[in-house]
Design brief:
six-stranded mixed sheet, alpha/beta, Alpha-Beta Plaits, Molybdenum Cofactor Biosythetic Enzyme, Chain A, elongated, 2 domains
């Protein structure tokens, strides 16, 4: 399928150590798919600047959109913004807008412990979601989110429409059979419909194997034709 490509760079040692379970990958992949964007890579990296830079340099030029989560706060392990700056070759610059915002939020001028939040990569875009305490930071094709799932949802929903592309049409076929029983007709349909993506997912429950198939494509008629032929070859039509 020829659709926009996205990559997720999920940042946080707490995720890699199992202390915290990620809730953002499933949400972002589902939302992007509904918008016609396919997530092609998901990279988990620790709170280490060089690891983040390396991951970003690998994905930025290979994908239309890159989404990062985590590492956006004021503490020692929040290094995402600086890593994006280095990876994209954009110097860090002071933002009077963010400095003023921090003063309004906390009631006093930003001290050294918050100064780092006022520095962003040169040319970064600031987007202000409704009811969000801090703006969305966008640098080129990189969209930076905090790690907190509720904030990710709020900020993504505010900018979701900018990612909308041609819709991806999907069909699902549940079968009370094993993969071995359906492999030959499935392969025949796959060969006939190169523009449709097929998935086969076996399930096991109480000693019984079943399988469900998925069909995805950007042309609804082609997806439906593929499903029709598949049902015919399986003796379901």
């Amino acid at each position: 399928m020829n659709v926009p490509r996205a990559a997720l760079v999920i940042i946080g040692q707490e995720l890699l150590s199992g202390k915290v379970k990620d809730e953002n990958v499933g949400y972002l992949t589902e939302q992007l798919w509904a918008l016609g964007v396919e997530v092609k890579r998901v990279l988990f990296v620790p709170d280490d600047s060089q690891d983040i830079v390396e991951a970003l340099r690998w994905v930025v030029d290979r994908h239309d959109y890159v989404f990062t989560t985590g590492g956006m706060g004021p503490t020692h392990d929040d290094v995402t913004v600086a890593a994006v700056s280095e990876a994209l070759g954009r110097p860090m610059v002071h933002s009077p807008i963010l400095e003023s915002l921090l003063e309004r939020l906390y009631g006093v001028p930003a001290g050294p412990e918050r100064t780092r939040l006022c520095h962003i990569p040169e040319g970064a875009e600031l987007v202000y979601p409704e009811d969000a305490r801090f703006p969305q930071l966008i640098v080129g094709n990189v969209f930076l989110f905090p790690g907190v799932p509720s904030i990710v949802r709020k900020k993504f929903s505010a900018i979701a429409e900018r990612f909308r592309a041609e819709p991806i049409y999907s069909e699902r076929l549940d079968l009370d059979r094993s993969e071995m029983e359906i492999v030959m007709p499935l392969n025949a349909v796959v060969e006939s419909f190169a523009d449709v993506r097929f998935g086969s997912y076996p399930q096991y429950s109480e000693g019984k194997e079943t399988v469900y198939l998925t069909l995805d494509g950007t042309q609804q008629e082609r997806v439906q034709d593929a499903l029709k032929l598949l049902k015919k070859l399986l003796g379901l039509a």
